[in-house]
Write a structure and sequence with these properties.
The two termini are 47 Å apart. The model has no long low-confidence stretch (mean pLDDT 96). Strands 1, 2, 3, 9, 10, 11 and 12 form a 7-stranded mixed β-sheet that branches. A 4-stranded antiparallel β-sheet has the order 15-17-18-16, with helices on both faces. The protein has a 3-stranded antiparallel β-sheet with strand order 4-6-5, with helices on one face. It is built from 25 helices and 20 strands. Helix 14 packs antiparallel against helix 15. 48% of the residues lie in helices and 15% in strands. It has 5 domains: 144 residues, Alpha-Beta Plaits, CATH 3.30.70; 50 residues, no CATH class; 119 residues, no CATH class; 155 residues, Hypothetical protein af1432, CATH 1.10.3210; 110 residues, Isoleucyl-tRNA Synthetase, Domain 1. With 671 residues, it is α+β, with helices and mostly antiparallel strands. Strand 5 and strand 6 form a beta hairpin.
Length: 671
């Protein structure tokens, strides 16, 4: 089996960029081989902080041969008046490398038929530098030397091996060869690779574990062993484990400690100092589940001089904990109301106003949402108090030092100041969710404050013309919208969000923006055309839109789905093409089909809001569909009699309006 190895050696990369970079390399390598018709069995990817690599297994020796047919000039311009080949045909033939007499005439056009032989894979792979590496894109770049080439970090070496043979290419002054490099400290030397298939083993001998999943497994195993030895509990946070894995090439876990006096600090402060700032794993006593004055960390090296490494890490952590202890003690001397008054001097955004202005608007929205959420009188008092003060902790020393603790410290300081627990919890929860699948507010008061805060940000930024475009979203409005929608869904708030935003500037754009986020919520569970149909309703009841889309999608495979959608779509399309201003006059009905449709419409309209979404759709399928079909069989809508025509259009509009509260069925594909 023939193998091809490509390794890009780099200066150390930021940990969060390593995995996306190697995944991109794999994707681009796959596309490159497919575009060049080179078969292969599979691609393995390898990564460390200093290298990105792929090993293509079972790569073919040649690309596949191909028969190609290229369309040329039309027959009418193929020859001149004397019957000779025209310049157009001659130019086309030269470009395709064929004789004009060998062209084939098909459907009044000349075609060149060519057989393209496969090329040696070693020849194709010489383009890897230009076609794969140079086309990689990153969120951050570096430029080095006096050149314009940009990459994630400066390239130090390149390996390009087809089995045992070098496949040459060059990027700047770096020539691809067979020489990699070992661990920066444990084996700081060149590593000559004899055969591509022995890449992983050759690097392991030089203290580099290039296969990231294997390295991660070793780290996890080492950490759990340390925990078991000390009767500790430890959580292997996936994000932290991924980051640590991308910081090391040869991992060695170790245990550090700190003075138990720091356990008097809030647990969140200790964990943030260890996990977020130092990339340590916090540990808990197995029996009591309480935090202990220890941590587990991972070094990029072996056990040698591990005592010095431990001492250094402990020293750095203690410095952070000393700062935290100072801020914790000093912040408790501050008064919440004094801090709140100072927020008027803090700019929320130059075009929008201060943080105080933002909080005032949020308080108004919170009062309105409190009714939507059916808060009790006590809960309404709590949410209004929370809205008055909820940003105060931004002016505390602790949050200034550890911005990850926004809201968390607000809750703790609020409780120490004697605030209601519901108020304190809302201060913490108003930041939730912090990610697409993050935790949502648990309390009703927190949910209302979180929704109001996000809603004001959306309304204010759109009104100021600060609207996201393309991938540009500097104020994280997409995340705020997603959070708002998830809260609405989780809290089961059945209301029209349009009533809150319709009077603001750029309201239509904000409506479309929010609908785009609803579509994003549904994209992996509902068919695209059904999402479009559900979003085309004349309101922004998030709960109802989500439910409508899911219910319609659930029925799409049923036998009755197609005729129902087509029947209602016919009604909608007629109404869209004609202006309807008349009211329905049952006295103008001339057929039983008109009467039957009208009577069913009247009866259904009275109870429509009380039906479940599933029952509404079943009513459309089993109730309206046969009546609409009968109507169109017996009734001509566009008659000469204006009164009859308008009356029939009015009846169809009423049907369209009622079914249109669920979706615009004319947007659903049935073919």
């Amino acid at each position: 089996m023939t193998n091809y190895l490509l390794e890009i050696g780099l200066e150390e990369m930021p940990a969060h960029l390593v995995t996306p970079a190697v995944e991109q390399l794999e994707t681009r390598m796959t596309a490159f081989l497919q575009e060049n018709r080179v078969d292969f069995t599979r691609i393995l990817k390898f990564s460390t902080p200093r290298r990105l690599a792929v090993l293509v297994e079972g790569i073919a020796e040649k690309s596949q041969a191909m028969d190609e047919e290229v369309k040329g000039p039309a027959a009418k311009i193929a020859k001149d008046a004397e019957g000779n080949w025209s310049k157009a045909i001659q130019g086309f033939s030269r470009g395709q490398g064929v004789n004009p007499d060998d062209l084939q005439l098909k459907d009044d056009y000349y075609f060149a038929e060519k057989h393209i032989e496969g090329l040696p894979t070693c020849e194709i792979l010489t383009k890897v530098g230009d076609e794969v590496i140079s086309k990689m894109t990153f969120s951050t770049y570096m430029k080095w030397g006096n050149n314009d080439f940009l990459f994630i970090r400066p390239i130090q070496w390149l390996v390009s091996l087809l089995d045992t043979e070098i496949v040459p290419f060059q990027i700047l002054d770096v020539k691809a060869g067979r020489t990699s490099r070992g661990h920066r400290f444990l084996a700081n030397r060149e590593v000559v690779l004899v055969d591509a298939k022995f890449y992983e083993k050759a690097l392991q001998d030089e203290y580099v574990i290039v296969y990231a999943p294997a390295r991660k497994f070793i780290i996890a195993e080492q950490i759990m062993k340390k925990a078991d030895e000390n009767n500790w509990e430890v959580e292997l946070h996936s994000d932290l484990l991924e980051e640590v894995n991308n910081l090391v090439e040869w991992p060695t876990a170790f245990v550090g400690s700190f003075d138990p006096k720091y356990l008097e600090l809030p647990e969140e402060v200790l964990i943030t100092s260890m996990r977020d700032n130092q990339r340590y794993f916090e540990v808990f006593e197995a029996e009591t589940h309480k935090l202990v004055p220890n941590f587990i960390a991972v070094r990029n090296g072996n056990e040698e001089f591990i005592e010095n490494v431990i001492a250094g890490n402990e020293k750095v952590l203690v410095a952070r904990l000393e700062d935290a202890k100072f801020f914790w003690e000093e912040d408790q001397k501050l008064k919440i109301d004094v801090l709140v008054d100072k927020l008027s001097a803090i700019t929320f955004h130059a075009k929008i106003g201060s943080l105080s202005d933002h909080m005032d608007r949020t308080r108004i929205l919170a009062a309105q949402l409190a009714d939507v959420a059916k808060l009790s009188p006590t809960e309404k008092i709590d949410v209004l108090r929370a809205a008055e003060i909820y940003k105060f902790d931004l002016l505390t020393g602790m949050v200034n030092e550890f911005d990850e603790l926004q809201g968390v410290m607000g809750e703790k300081y609020a409780l120490l100041a004697g605030e209601n627990p519901n108020v304190a919890a809302a201060i913490r929860e108003h930041y939730l969710p912090t990610s697409a699948d993050g935790a949502l507010p648990v309390t009703k008061v927190g949910a209302v404050l979180a929704a109001a805060d996000k809603l004001d940000s959306l309304i204010s930024f759109f009104a100021a013309g600060l609207i996201p475009s393309g991938s540009n979203d500097p104020y994280a409005l997409r995340r705020a919208t997603a959070g708002l929608l998830h809260i609405i869904e989780a809290q089961n708030w059945n209301f029209d969000l349009a009533e809150f935003i319709s009077s603001g500037k750029n309201a239509d754009q904000l409506m479309d923006f929010i609908k785009g986020r609803i579509a994003k919520m549904l994209e992996n569970e509902v068919r695209g055309d059904i999402i479009d149909a559900a979003l085309a309703v004349d309101q922004l009841n998030v709960l109802q839109i989500l439910d409508n889309a899911r219910v319609i999608d659930d029925h799409k495979a049923h036998e009755a789905f197609k005729p129902a959608v087509e029947a209602v779509s016919r009604v909608i399309n007629i109404v869209k093409k004609n202006e309807v201003t008349s009211a329905i006059d049952s006295g103008l009905f001339e057929s039983s089909a008109e009467t039957a449709l009208y009577e069913f419409l009247q009866k259904t309209s009275q109870n429509w809001q009380n039906l479940t979404t599933d029952d509404k759709f079943r009513t459309i399928v089993h109730g309206f569909t046969p009546l609409i079909s009968a109507f169109f069989e017996e009734v001509m809508v566009m008659v000469d009699d204006t009164a009859l025509k308008n009356n029939r259009l009015a009846l169809l509009k009423a049907v369209s309006d009622l079914t249109g509260t669920m979706a615009d069925f004319s947007l659903i594909l049935t073919k």
